[in-house]
Amino acid sequence: MKPRVRFAPSPTGPLHIGGVRTALYNYLFAKQSGGTFLLRIEDTDQTRFVEGAEEYIIEAFKWLGIEFDEGVGIGGELGPYKQSERKALYKPYAEQLVNDGWAYYAFDTPEALDAKRKEAEAQKRTFQYDASTRMTMENSLTLPPDEVARRIQDGDHYVVRFKYPEDTEIHVHDLIRGEVVINSRLLDDKVLYKSDGMPTYHLANIVDDHLMQITHVIRGEEWLPSAPLHVMLYKAFGWEAPQFAHLPLLLKPDGNGKLSKRDGDRLGFPVFPLQWTDPKSGEVSSGYRESGYLPEAVINMLALLGWNPGTEQEIFSIDELVKAFSLDKISKSGAKFSLDKAKWFNHEYIQLKTAEELYPAVEKLLVSKGIQFDKEYLMKVIALMKERLNFVNEFLDHAGFFFTAPAEYNEQDLKKRWKEGTGGKLRAIDTLLQQDKVFDMQAAHDRVMEYIKSNEWNMGQVLNSLRIAIVGEAKGPELFTMIDILGTDEVHRRVEKAINIVES
Ligand code: GLU
Hints:
Low-confidence stretches: none
Strand content: 5-15%
Radius of gyration: 32 Å
Distance between the termini: 82 Å
Number of helices: 20
CATH architecture of the domain at 355-502: Orthogonal Bundle
CATH class of the domain at 355-502: Mainly Alpha
Strand order of the largest sheet: 1-2-3
Shape: elongated
Largest sheet: 3 strands, parallel
Bound molecules: glutamic acid
């Protein structure tokens, strides 16, 4: 049987990159074996629903190029894939558990529960609704059956709680963590269903994983504490449980705790794939897309945060990831996020792109800045300058002088390089540059070098002054390549302008 896996986000806000990584690992796992990867939206908790979050999730995966085979926005035979659209389906399952003795109706009011909590606190205990307390509460285990029936009939509020067997070891087999064992004494009789007609996450998740024929549940470590309940629910329903794999947490760069929404903007990197504007507060959180990351770089970086190929290889195309990925090479310990590494990946992926491929993004950037350019010219600049870029957004920081002549010159560079008589020397070199009808880079280079040598000028001083005139500072790519792209007329204008400004 081919694997069927799912990514099951709750639309409670923008998708954290930890969630993106979970989806990616599911995707890689499915693709590797020709399995199916589906998107299910878990929106049963209406109080946490956030406007626009579902659309955000779909757009994020589009941008990343991660495609689902089934699910919300795609369809499929086992849909609908949005839990709110499956609402009516869960109640019979809750009732089945009650009828089979695996669950019970509980009528305790919030006040009654609170009083129990306070009472326990006063005795330095924490209250837990479990085998040791459930017989003291107001539920279908303690009330006569006709009263239970009457209360339900009358529309009293109730919840359905899972009834853990007393003092029982529950085993969770996790593909990453191995065997996890917990005693039911430590577990709370979790709410599965509420009388408002909504299942909780636990019930909906298990029912849907079963009905959608999920074979492997690959999800974040934060769900490990729920796994014993899930294992028990499969048992209670008499269904075969899927295999579980709980992924290690993504940690802050210093390794101290989970990477949170706040860390990103505090430390200068995005925690979300796309920029997100909170619909209520208007607060904006940065996104990888808007920060100039390439989706391939984000995917490659995330793939290696928690999974290790077992070789030195770091750059993986998505196809290579699909081939190399395996659950047994996922680490048990948390993976530290590194901004330098994220930048490094982006830099590497920019180098893998041709100028043609980078063109649209750079074009957009220049247009947004109101800069005029010619396509052929811009292509040459991109080809020359891309090696300096970590982000396309930085293009003008490195290559701005190709579009606008400097209006001022770096003081320190001038002091170091521009001496008396420099203006005259630059004019002489400018004349040499103008000599070819069609600029011949190599010939011009040789001519200029020869000339400087025969005049016994200081090579570094003259060439750097020329560079200052062209760029505005003693930086930039190879001098003659730069002159070739800018054209000798433009170089001439810049030399004259610099002499005017510097020597006046
Ligand atoms: N809805 C849960 C979430 O938001 C899904 C957890 C799971 O994969 O079981 O992450």
